[in-house]
Amino acid sequence: MRAAVTVLTAWVSLVGGGTAWAGAGTGQVAARLGAASRVAPGVTYRTVSWHGGHGTTHGHLLTVDLRDDRVSLDLLYPGAVGARDTVSGMTERQGAVGGVNGDFFNITEVQHPGVRETGAPVGPAVADGHALKAAVPDGQRFGPAMPRGVDTEAVFGVDRDGVARMDRLSLEGSVRTEDDDLPLSGFNQYAIPVDGIGVFTPAWGRVSRKRAVCGTDAHRGAPCSDETYEVTVRRGRVAARSARPGKGPIASGSLVLVGREEGARELRRLAVGDRVSVDRYLRARKARGYDFAIGGFPVLRGGRQLSGLDGRTAAVRTAAGLADRGQRVYLLALDGRAAYRPGLTLTELARLMRAVGSVDAFNLDGGGSSTLVTRSPGSGHAVVRNHPSGGAERAVANGIGVFSGS
Questions:
Q1: Angle at 139 between CA 361 and CA 222, to 5 degrees
Q2: Handedness of CA 173, 168, 102, 105 (dihedral sign)
Q3: pTM of structure
């Protein structure tokens, strides 16, 4: 009998609307799944319980069937890269039927007095097929240590063929002047690489660009650069110049180039009226392109935990999982009530995502950011299903939205 229990693998029994148990294989503790309830066509919600090394934790799970033509995923975001909003607010405004919080973000700037945080996310972001931003340097990120071999270009998304997958999105581009072709190393990022040039578009929003020249590629808290330059380009010509990054909205048809160190020296050569063009795109490694993508980092790939995951630090977590060759998506947010707040380590999170059915899984921002909401298609009000650990919803940079037609 003990042997029979030990070799229990993933299975579900929902006869009569009862609970279900899902195991993750030999020697793994099973996850207890609550009865599934329909949120919208192709979308269901249920609760999850799991006993980890720091006690029992509870979570909330959305299952999304992308084989249903009425269902899709897209980016929840506040309408600007450098802005924040609650998951429930973004869900209601964009008409999603469910969602979870997304990427880690520039949440504080205590190490740079006089510089405000931007609220912008760490990794790449794509919404409705349009690239919004690229990844900051690894040393500039917020969040827990990533597994070995992973960097800030990691994304979870849905490609142009409608398949959900984990991938990487790398910035490629250039700044072309009348005399030179300069490499572009930033795109709507709160941190530009040392010696680099970054472009900011109207999608950045009105928040200051000063943070972009603070820290270094290896150390987020390093001082701000004292060698900077900013150039405003309007309709393909230099319209204004400044020795310091500015703030405020960027007009339609305009863009702003910000350089630091060598990048600043290159921009300083430009004069008002000079012709300038900027090419930029995010190159995917595994797909032709993405309709939606969000940053974070993988914890499970091909059913195996990634090497180097933290197995000691427990926290409230949010994650996205994939199964059925990218046609089924699991969105999980742990509950932040005091009784469950110890949460899970990253290794335990990988095991839990495998237990609920994921073959691949992707870690998103956690702690006070962890939020899962649902909204009935006929209702304008989104319901927060978990208890955020801070006692109330935190405004976050972005999230994963679930959309379903009737």
A1: 150
A2: negative
A3: 0.93
